[in-house]
Amino acid sequence: MRRAPLLRCLLVLAAVAVLEALCRVGVIDRFTMPPPSRILEDLVRLLIAAKLYGAIVKTLTNVAIAFGLAATAGLAAGVLIHRFRLLREALDPLFATYYAIPVFAFYPLLIILFGLGDMPQIMIAFMLAVIAMIVNTLNGIDRVPNVLLKTARMAHMSPLETALRMTLPYAAPHLITGMKLALAYALIGIIGSEFIMSRGGMGFEIAFAYTNLDNAVMYPLIVLILAVSIAVNALIGRWERRVLARRGLR
Amino acid sequence: MTSKPSGDPRDDARRCAAGAGSTHARLRDVTKYFPVGRERGNGARSGSLHALGPLDLDLRRGEFFAMVGPSGCGKSTLLELLAGLATTSEGTITFEDQPVRGVVPDGVGVVFQEDASIPWLTVFDNIAFGLRRTKLTAHERNARVADALRIMGLHEFAGSYPAQLSGGMRQRVCIARTLVTRPRLVLLDEPFGALDQQTRLLMGEELLKLWRETGATVFLITHALDEAAMLADRIGVMSARPGRLLTVIETNWPRERDSRVVEEAAFGAITAQLWQHLRAESLKAIGRQDIRV
After folding, report:
1. A41 within some domain
2. What is the dihedral of CA B265, B268, B274, B280, to 10 degrees?
3. In terms of pTM, does the model score above 0.90?
4. Contact across the interface for A155 and B129, Cβ inside 8 Å
5. φ and ψ at B187, to 5 degrees?
6. How high is the mean pLDDT in each 10-residue block of chain B (293 residues)?
7. Contacts of residue A243 in chain B, CB cutoff 8 Å?
8. Given CB atoms, is A156 within the 8 Å cutoff of chain B?
9. Do A209 and A151 reside in the same domain of the chain?
């Protein structure tokens, strides 16, 4: 293992060990938080019991839908906005301040518009994720060297072909960053909205366990969300490293 | 060796720029203005910069023509107009009797000054990229790319990515990508700028060899007077911005030539003659403001 990832793992393990010690000696009481080793045990027990599979599948499916929509729409919107300078100039300040808007405040409106199903949660996650994708798509396309666009013209490539074979591949590192952020925002959007407007999903189960002081469910689910997020990010990170390595950037 | 100047410099330039053989590309009164200054509501700019022209030039079929001029005189702009990558503000350009206006004509290849290697493609795929629209079989395509790799000394790096190569090697990849398409008009914008002197001489020899083999017309833009003097049949000298053609110097080198022409006495004379024309223009180019508002 390379030194930086090894150090990262050691730091996380050290933090977990400190937490374990604080819980074991009673500095953190067991009603506030069980020791990490106990959380892990509870997680294994929950997974074996398979009681929460429905909630896990619902959350992850909604995250995947919101992420897929945001990545696709964000990419298409980014390409489109880049083509129209006036539109870009009009929208840039809005993108810069977008994350100051509390998207969750729109949930009553979204329930009126989309009903009580999963759609309002997906929409909140989408609204959070799509801007990250648009902004990173624009950043990536901005950096495409003019000489590569000239090369595309010399090769008689159509605008669509230029986008697919020159612009987007060049912008790929930025697109991947956009995807990583979009995934994080989609996860935050879905879990967050499950806390406030859902009758199912991991967010709802965490909120329910919290209300009932059920630490044996709440903490394992939090750990599971962390694990899923880290695993998916690691997968995208792997792809990113391959893309960057080809360009001599890593 | 050079056309004799007459009273009107414009007439001189027009006369000496006209080729004696059949004309491959013809430029007439080619002028370029770039919008500059504050942007108005309708997207237009408040002023314009007179970058080039009016300029007349006939490129003879199969000749090697080099263009030299002071920095910022519009050499690269001229090349882009000729390639169909930009449109003239005034004047006309024809290639093989067809007008060139903002669309790259078939049969024209360009090697740019900047690194145009495609970072996510291997050297082999970068070179083959130029052939993607041809109707060659995979075997023919691979053979052409292999030839280009050999000529450019890149055969050991066919599977490498541009980031793994030096700047000079990347430029050789770009040259190979253009030449592999066998264009009838090759436009070169300072293609050897990133190469060391020895490699420049050797690449110049390879270029001369390819030029002889393919019979293409070559239009080279360069800062290097010795490079122009070594490679070209004719050398155009441009004025400071707005770039106009001051004169055209004939080198009279035989078609079968290589870098050893630098040993000839005539080589020094040509270089000196170029500098004689360029010195005053280079001085003029420093600190000039030709913005017409």
Report:
1. no
2. -130
3. no
4. yes
5. -105, 125
6. 42 46 91 84 76 93 95 92 95 95 91 92 92 86 92 90 88 90 93 81 86 92 93 95 93 91 92 91 70 44
7. 120
8. yes
9. yes
